[in-house]
């Protein structure tokens, strides 16, 4: 490869790297929701020039992890209660559709795969009984159903960074152990409906599961805020 071709690819590679590093800092909670970000600070922190940094920031904005505020520059997205409600409404519709479609095409091997994911989840829950914040997420289960549905755009939307970011925010609050166990039971019933190829029931169960999950997150946040005020 010629030197000029290598030079042209280098900023792209640098942009990808800084995109990954800033994205990880946001999802891990290193950058707090609502935290102001400046190009100067980020360039110094990650040791990059402004050009690849700006490209990375544009892509993070497209992925809904940062937002531009008039006269204030950029900041990490902070999801208020209304936004979360709206996102969960969308999530319920998308996941319900994924279940309905998956029920029509799912294979015995895919049923076994889903049950395997839930079995692994059950073991993980038992190993983290002492610390609710260490309880694992179940994203693989939901994405797997979307993949089974055969709709690639549906899978892409459900795997978006905004969902990872929302879960990362809520993992700061310990959720009730009872709700975690109930959620696991709800997942099992969804798989039962998929195995029976009952798309209507699978969709209903998934929508109810999303609503219940949203309510528990609201309650967990309220409990955390009450502890902070005490």
Q: What topology does this entry show?
A:
Layout: H1 3-27, E1 36-37, H2 39-46, H3 50-62, E2 66-69, E3 73-76, H4 81-105, H5 108-127, H6 139-149, H7 152-158, H8 161-170, H9 177-195, H10 199-229
Antiparallel strand pairs: 1-3, 2-3
Helix pairs in contact: 1-3, 4-6, 4-9, 4-10, 5-6, 5-9, 6-7, 9-10
How would you explain this protein's 3D organization?
With 230 residues, this protein is mainly α. It has 2 domains: 74 residues, Winged helix-like DNA-binding domain superfamily/Winged helix DNA-binding domain (Arc Repressor Mutant, subunit A); 149 residues, GntR ligand-binding domain-like (Four Helix Bundle (Hemerythrin (Met), subunit A), Up-down Bundle), CATH 1.20.120.530. It is built from 10 helices and 3 strands, in the order H-E-H-H-E-E-H-H-H-H-H-H-H. A 3-stranded antiparallel sheet has the order 1-3-2. Strand 2 and strand 3 form a beta hairpin. Helix 4 packs parallel to helix 9. It is globular. 22% of the residues are buried.
């Amino acid at each position: 490869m010629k030197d000029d071709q290598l030079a042209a690819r280098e900023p792209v590679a640098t942009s990808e790297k800084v995109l990954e590093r800033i994205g990880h800092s946001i999802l891990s909670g290193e950058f707090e929701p609502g935290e102001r970000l400046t190009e100067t600070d980020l360039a110094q922190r990650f040791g990059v020039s402004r050009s690849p940094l700006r490209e990375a920031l544009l892509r993070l904005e497209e992925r809904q992890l940062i937002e531009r505020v008039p006269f204030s520059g950029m900041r990490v997205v902070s999801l208020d209660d209304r936004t979360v409600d709206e996102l969960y409404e969308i999530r319920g519709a998308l996941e319900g559709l994924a279940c309905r479609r998956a029920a029509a095409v799912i294979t015995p091997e895919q049923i076994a795969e889903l049950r395997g994911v839930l079995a692994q989840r059950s073991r993980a829950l038992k190993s983290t009984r002492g610390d609710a914040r260490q309880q694992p997420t179940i994203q693989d289960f939901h994405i797997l159903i979307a993949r089974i549905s055969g709709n690639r755009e549906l899978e892409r939307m459900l795997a978006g960074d905004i969902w990872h970011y929302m879960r990362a925010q809520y993992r700061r609050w310990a959720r009730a152990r009872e709700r975690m166990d109930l959620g696991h039971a709800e997942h099992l019933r969804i798989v039962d409906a998929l195995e029976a190829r009952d798309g209507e029931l699978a969709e209903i169960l998934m929508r109810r599961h999303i609503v219940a999950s949203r309510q528990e997150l609201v309650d967990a946040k309220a409990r955390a805020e009450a502890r902070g005020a005490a």
